[in-house]
């Protein structure tokens, strides 16, 4: 085996590979021409600097695995790797402790005004009276996102005697109880928290989740910590709240633009700014290097796949056949995930038709990844493992086609403590993902772009009101699909459903006006892959 370490790694990382006496290891300082070095390589290890694009992969005909020592894989063309049968692995969770520890450190620094205390002392001042802080004991600590990092933060915060509340629709009540976390809605989390920390991924649903509207619902004096993604916060709204004193303080490790330029936070004394260092500890960097080395070694020796971010287990022919259903399943999962308001206890998948005859593991994982898409580091390979970590049970069944229509159908059901949510979909003409039903109502609609789902009473005038409101707000309708319940369904007779595909964005004002229509029961908005 030949392994190319294209970027600098720790001695411990190199030592993992050197346990294989007959392996050739090429380190970054021995490389003069990377494409030439990859010509006969079996494995490639990178960090974030080397761009692994299709052109580079074309020079690596024997390459079987790419290991990314870190979480993000923006520098790797995973689709190109998949087409070439190359596994792409990363190391999610290896820096969870480092991020959790910085979160706690920033929270303590906010409460005790440590940056100001340090600065005044270095300036030769003794400003004891102006530095009276607050204790963490007894404060409500809100955690948005209860993945690996969120739970690590919770475990440490318990030691300070804090009351833990959390929001994550995709973590089970059992996992929350084990960590002494009281699950609440997002609205309750924002309203009740004395300290609020963010640990969710960057998705259309979480973008700008801290904004003028949500800030207005928060307690006066709340303190916010963000070590996740800068895009979670509308920076101007947070800056204004900090200036007004509605938010007492913020500690930010991530930003919209990195490094930030002309940031609204510059010069604000009640803001702690750090340069994206949450995962930058010697131990974390060592851990990600050793972890990726172990993963690459295990795959090349034993075929064991860990933390893969693409689709490694299908032949090229199998991949071509199942790929449209993998994509459809992810979109269906993302679509259905908009409805539950309480924790998901189990996910049920039912396959019928030709798709049930083949390998469905990646279809299953794609659906789960769509459902859990707001969480950090969830992908089509590790989705089932992440669901298990969160206490979510997975049930699958395969059966012959009985619908007489679409040849292959996936039915997806989310079970929560209070209700179930079910939808089915198929792929038409090998390329078009189509919704077939939602909660017992037959409806055919495209699973792409921005979709409004509108539940309403089946009375005259609703369609016209929807069209008028969207038109008044300059929202163009690309597709308008309708369905209605009947007595043979579990949905109450007299209800109807519309799935409206729209072009471009829609404002909160337009959504609120739709929700204000007397006959409309629910309105949800979901964006599927930016319309791709």
- CATH architecture label of the largest domain: 3-Layer(aba) Sandwich
Helix content: 25-40%
Number of domains: 4
Strand content bin? 15-25%
Largest sheet: 7 strands, parallel
- CATH evolutionary superfamily of the largest domain: NAD(P)-binding Rossmann-like Domain
How large is the count of helical segments? 17
Terminus-to-terminus distance: 39 Å
| SS elements, strand count | 22
Q: Flag low-confidence runs.
A: none
* Radius of gyration based on Cα positions: 25 Å
Mean pLDDT: 90
Question: Could you explain the architecture of this structure?
Answer:
This protein is α/β, with parallel strands linked by helices and 532 residues long. The chain has 4 domains: 2-93 and 284-310, Rossmann fold (3-Layer(aba) Sandwich); 96-273, 3-Layer(aba) Sandwich (Rossmann fold); 313-438, D-3-phosphoglycerate dehydrogenase, domain 3 (60s Ribosomal Protein L30, Chain: A, 2-Layer Sandwich), CATH 3.30.1330; 448-532, ACT domain (Alpha-Beta Plaits, 2-Layer Sandwich). Helix content is 31%, strand content 24%. The chain has 17 helices and 22 strands. The protein has helices spanning 11-18, 34-37, 54-58, 78-83, 96-112, 114-122, 148-157, 173-178, 186-192, 212-216, 235-244, 282-302, 316-336, 361-371, 383-389, 462-472, 508-515, and strands spanning 2-5, 24-26, 43-46, 65-68, 87-89, 140-144, 163-167, 181-183, 195-198, 222-226, 247-252, 271-273, 346-353, 393-399, 408-415, 420-428, 432-438, 441-446, 449-457, 476-484, 495-503, 520-528. A 7-stranded parallel beta sheet has the order 8-7-6-9-10-11-12, with helices on both faces. A 6-stranded mixed beta sheet has the order 14-13-15-16-17-18. A 5-stranded parallel beta sheet has the order 2-1-3-4-5. Helix 7 (148-157) links the parallel strand 6 (140-144) and strand 7. The longest helix is centred in the middle third of the chain and has 21 residues, at 282-302. It starts with a strand and ends with a strand. The mean pLDDT is 90. It comes from Alloacidobacterium dinghuense. Pathway: Amino-acid biosynthesis; L-serine biosynthesis; L-serine from 3-phospho-D-glycerate: step 1/3. Its EC number is 1.1.1.95.
């Amino acid at each position: 085996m030949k392994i190319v370490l294209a970027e600098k790694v720790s001695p411990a990382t190199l030592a993992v590979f050197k346990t294989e006496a007959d392996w050739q290891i090429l380190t970054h300082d021995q490389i003069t021409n990377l494409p030439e070095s990859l010509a006969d390589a079996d494995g490639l290890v990178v960090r974030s600097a080397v761009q692994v694009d299709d052109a580079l992969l074309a020079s690596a005909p024997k390459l079987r695995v790419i290991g990314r020592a870190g979480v993000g894989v923006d520098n790797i063309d995973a689709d190109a790797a998949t087409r070439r049968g190359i596994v792409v692995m990363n190391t999610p969770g290896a820096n969870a402790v480092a991020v959790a520890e910085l979160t706690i450190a920033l929270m303590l620094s906010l409460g005790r005004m440590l940056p100001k205390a340090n600065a005044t002392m270095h300036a030769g001042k003794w400003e004891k009276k102006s530095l009276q802080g607050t204790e963490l004991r007894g404060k409500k600590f809100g955690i948005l996102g209860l993945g690996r990092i969120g739970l690590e933060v919770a475990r440490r915060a318990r030691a300070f005697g804090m009351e833990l509340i959390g929001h994550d629709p995709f973590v089970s009540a059992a996992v929350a109880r084990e960590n002494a976390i009281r699950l609440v809605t997002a609205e309750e989390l924002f309203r009740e928290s004395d300290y609020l920390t963010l640990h969710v991924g960057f998705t259309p649903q979480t973008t700008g989740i801290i904004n003028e509207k949500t800030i207005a619902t928060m307690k006066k004096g709340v303190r916010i910590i963000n070590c996740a993604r800068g895009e979670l916060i509308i920076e101007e709204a947070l800056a204004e709240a900090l200036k007004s004193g509605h938010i007492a303080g913020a500690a930010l490790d991530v930003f919209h633009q990195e490094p930030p330029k002309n940031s609204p936070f510059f010069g604000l004394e009640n803001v702690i700014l750090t340069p994206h260092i949450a995962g930058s500890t010697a131990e974390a960097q060592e851990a990600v290097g050793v972890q990726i080395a172990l993963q690459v070694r295990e795959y090349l020796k034993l075929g064991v796949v860990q933390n893969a971010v693409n689709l490694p287990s299908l032949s090229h022919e199998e991949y071509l056949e199942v790929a449209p259903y993998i994509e459809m399943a992810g979109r269906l999962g993302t679509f259905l995930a908009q409805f539950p308001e309480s924790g998901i206890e189990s996910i049920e998948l039912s396959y019928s038709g030709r798709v049930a005859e083949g390998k469905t593991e990646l279809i299953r994982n794609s659906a789960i990844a769509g459902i859990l898409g707001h969480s950090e580091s969830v992908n089509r390979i590790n989705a089932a493992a992440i669901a298990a970590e969160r206490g979510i049970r997975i049930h699958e069944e395969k059966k012959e086609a009985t619908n007489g229509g679409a040849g292959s159908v996936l039915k997806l059901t989310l079970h929560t403590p209070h209700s179930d949510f079910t939808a089915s979909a198929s792929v038409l003409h090998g390329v078009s993902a189509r919704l077939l039903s939602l909660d017992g109502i037959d409806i055919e609609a495209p699973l792409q772009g921005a979709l409004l789902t509108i539940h309403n009473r089946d009375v005259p005038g609703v369609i016209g009101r929807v069209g008028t409101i969207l038109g008044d707000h300059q929202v163009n309708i690309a597709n308008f699909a309708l369905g209605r319940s009947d007595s043979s369904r579990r949905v109450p007779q007299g209800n109807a459903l519309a799935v409206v595909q729209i072009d471009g964005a829609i404002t909160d004002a337009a959504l609120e006006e739709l929700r204000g229509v007397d006959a409309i029961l629910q309105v949800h908005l979901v964006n599927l892959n930016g319309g791709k």
